[in-house]
Task: inverse folding
């Protein structure tokens, strides 16, 4: 190896698979450059896995379009400025808005990459808490709130989410997830393709329910098309079959089993067939096979949680695992025991629902957050509590939340907006100031969140791979400075003692804090992890119940009334749906996409276009359309013009657009991204469509498609 080249271990933080990496770094006078990235075979969790995005991590670091210094808008033009100036500008304006209009006048939105940054976990959370605004939003309410809501009601903590024991299961039932593209979610499962191969080699089966024959469906033993938004009736029918055929064997710590039997009595497989398109006989057979398997896991993700009955679906899925005896069983669904146990240690609250409601629409909060679907109306509607200033942190809600176009327009009506982000994009272009932190390769990392959701207990600490450039700031330093500078300018400051305490805690680095958490956790230490940068193995998942339950009585209530009451709404809506024949829209992910933000790397965007509306050939023919035609897709909320592609992988009556497309930044920045064609699916999704939990129902949006 060239003496100016070194090898070092790193980590990918682009998705929940948290793959370990091996990087080749060239040291040159003008700075270090990553010249190669491979999977790290000695990582006990990811075992050498890497996907195309992992390789593209290097492109984020070298991207000339990425922001490296703060910028502010002066007379409509972006100009670079100093950190002191930018931070003061944000502090003055945010403090002014709070002083004049009250704490709720500040709206905060946290995007997905926060979950992938140690500094956000340790310091971002404190920033959000410091301002006590009720107008807190995040990507969670276009994603996994139903999982959290149901977990808090059944297991006593919002992050007690059962994880598939994929390495030992013999029956893997998948609803509304495509881990072959997404690499898994609320299930950290790097190397999914090989784990499925192993599952099938030991005689296990994978069965997928999805309105599209996805990459995952294609490698499954069986795939069933299910009409979007109707999974709840399929799952309730499966529960019906478990009871009807005497297949239930709940643990002794489960209450209200009989109540569930009564509730599902009229959800027969025949009724589910009419609504969902899945044959009654298939529902019966799959339920029997699942119940008979020696360790089975029923798992459902985004396609299941982002629909009108997302919470009912997640509840029914838990009931299925519990009643069949597969919760807390090897090869079934298990709870993790991470080295930093955020559940047991109370680092994150248990979760609460409907403690207060949004001002305009009266929508309930979950866990201290309002549904992001109410964000725009809270900015647009005058009155006490109106949002006047917004801070977005690592998020692009203009592309990622329902009716994003309207949200972008609302941002322009604000008194002030700031963004902590590394790019000028569809959201941050509405800001007055953008504060860009260092990127993943430049900061120390420990996956507090994802070790706790992983299919195996492991721990890994990764020191920064590249030096912090001179003058750059880590995200946690930005959060620290914002809290201190804003608080100093508030009319109603917290008491001096509290502020001093805050200053002290905020000055401790994330690495120091993680070291303390590891030490008090007792399973490993940071010095052990520094000696083993590939990660340490803490063993497979194990049965832990009922001790690990966070419910006060260490029992599981199988029928929490808040959830079961929603069956009334389900019955009413399903009656309406009966016989409906219009088109409905769903989303999709591609292996080379990363929500809305990795489109500025050529490596991930060259090759075949993947922005098209996918539609079954019969549906095309019925409208006199041909493959490749330009069509207008219209929903209640708006219209977009996009090319259509014939795809017999689609269920009839269902069309699909990828999410995270529709880039619209002009000017010199984001050169590549603006060349990526396509439209934003969220210019069609509807903020009025919500699950009980407040989560957006992004899936199954009624649309029409016509030639343009
Ligand atoms: N219709 C539809 N909509 C969806 C979905 C869907 O399936 N269908 N999926 C939903 C889901 S699951 C999610 S998680 C959301 C995602 O929604 P968001 O989190 O709002 O969007 P992202 O595209 O992840 O945007 C990430 C932002 O963070 C910035 N960024 C990247 N790295 C860093 C960093 O290290 N620090 C900082 N400060 N910024 C950084 C990027 O430039 C970008 O602006 O979208 C949701 N929206
Ligand atoms: N390559 C890539 N990987 C990613 C991301 C990315 O953008 N790109 N994003 C990351 C994020 S933030 C998340 S949250 C995860 C999400 O991880 P997954 O949940 O695996 O994400 P998707 O690939 O969107 O899979 C959702 C599936 O649900 C199906 N579906 C839609 N509506 C319904 C329905 O009503 N019923 C049923 N049964 N199925 C339905 C869709 O066809 C799709 O196949 O992925 C993560 N990983
Ligand atoms: S699967 Fe790909 S994007 Fe996800 S962590 Fe691994 S390398 Fe990164
Ligand atoms: Mo997500």
Result:
């Amino acid at each position: 190896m060239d003496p100016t080249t070194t090898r070092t271990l790193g980590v990918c933080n682009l998705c929940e698979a948290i793959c370990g990496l091996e990087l080749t770094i060239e040291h040159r006078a003008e700075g270090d450059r990553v010249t190669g990235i491979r999977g790290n075979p000695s990582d006990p969790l990811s075992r050498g896995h890497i996907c195309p995005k992992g390789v593209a991590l290097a492109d984020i670091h070298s991207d000339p379009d990425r922001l490296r210094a703060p910028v502010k808008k002066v007379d409509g033009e972006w100009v670079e400025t100093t950190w002191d100036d930018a931070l003061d500008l944000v502090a003055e304006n945010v403090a002014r808005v709070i002083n004049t209009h009250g704490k709720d006048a500040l709206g905060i939105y946290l995007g997905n990459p926060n979950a992938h940054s140690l500094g956000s976990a340790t310091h971002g959370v404190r920033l959000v808490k410091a301002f006590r605004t009720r107008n807190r939003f995040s990507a969670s309410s276009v994603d996994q709130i139903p999982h959290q809501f149901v977990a808090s009601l059944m297991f006593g903590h919002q992050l007690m989410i059962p994880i598939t024991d994929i390495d030992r299961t013999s029956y893997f039932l998948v609803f509304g997830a495509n881990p072959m593209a997404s690499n898994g979610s609320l299930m950290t499962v790097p190397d999914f393709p090989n784990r499925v191969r192993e599952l099938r080699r030991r005689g296990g089966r994978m069965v997928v329910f999805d309105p599209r024959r996805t990459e995952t469906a294609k490698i499954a033993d069986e795939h069933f098309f299910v009409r979007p938004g109707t999974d709840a009736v399929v799952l309730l029918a499966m529960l019906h079959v478990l009871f009807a055929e005497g297949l239930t064997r709940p643990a002794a710590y489960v209450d209200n089993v009989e109540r569930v039997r009564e509730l599902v009595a009229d959800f027969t497989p025949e009724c589910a067939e009419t609504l969902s398109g899945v044959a009654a006989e298939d529902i019966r057979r799959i339920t029997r096979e699942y119940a008979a398997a020696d360790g089975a896991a029923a798992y459902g993700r985004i396609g299941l949680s982002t629909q009108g009955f997302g919470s009912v679906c997640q509840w029914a899925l838990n009931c299925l695992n519990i009643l069949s005896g597969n919760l807390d069983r090897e090869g079934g669904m298990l709870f993790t025991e991470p080295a930093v146990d955020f559940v047991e240690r109370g680092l994150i609250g248990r979760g609460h629902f409907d403690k207060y409601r949004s001002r305009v629409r009266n929508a309930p909060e979950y866990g201290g957050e309002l549904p992001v679907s109410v964000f725009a109306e809270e900015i647009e509607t005058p009155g006490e509590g109106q949002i006047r200033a917004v801070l977005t942190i690592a998020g692009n809600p203009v592309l990622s939340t329902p009716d994003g176009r309207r949200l972008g327009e609302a941002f322009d009506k604000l008194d002030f907006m700031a963004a902590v982000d590394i790019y000028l994009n569809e959201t941050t272009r509405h800001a007055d100031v953008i504060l860009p932190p260092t990127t993943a390769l430049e900061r120390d990392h420990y996956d507090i969140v994802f070790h706790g959701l992983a299919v195996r207990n492991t721990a890994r600490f990764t020191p920064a791979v590249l030096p912090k450039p001179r003058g750059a700031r880590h995200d946690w330093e930005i959060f620290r400075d914002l809290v201190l500078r804003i608080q100093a300018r508030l009319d109603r400051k917290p008491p001096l003692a509290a502020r001093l305490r805050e200053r002290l805690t905020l000055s401790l680095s994330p690495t120091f804090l993680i070291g303390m958490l590891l030490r008090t956790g007792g399973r490993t230490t940071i010095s052990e992890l520094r000696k083993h940068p590939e990660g340490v193995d803490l063993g497979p998942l194990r049965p832990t119940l009922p001790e690990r339950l966070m419910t006060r009585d260490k029992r599981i209530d199988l029928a929490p009334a808040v959830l079961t009451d929603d069956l009334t709404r389900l019955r009413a809506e399903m009656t309406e749906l009966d016989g409906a024949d219009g088109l409905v829209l769903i989303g999709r992910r591609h292996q080379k996409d990363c929500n809305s933000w990795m489109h500025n790397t050529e490596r991930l965007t060259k090759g075949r276009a993947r922005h098209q509306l996918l539609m079954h050939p019969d549906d095309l023919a019925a409208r006199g359309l041909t493959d490749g035609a330009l069509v207008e897709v219209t929903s209640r909320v708006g219209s977009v013009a996009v090319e259509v592609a014939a795809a017999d992988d689609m269920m009839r009556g269902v069309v699909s657009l990828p999410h995270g497309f529709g880039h619209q930044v002009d000017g010199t920045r984001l050169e590549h991204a603006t060349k990526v064609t396509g439209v934003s699916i969220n210019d069609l999704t509807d903020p009025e469509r919500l699950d009980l939990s407040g989560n957006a129902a992004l899936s199954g949006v009624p649309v029409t498609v016509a030639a343009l």
About this structure: The chain has a mean pLDDT of 96.
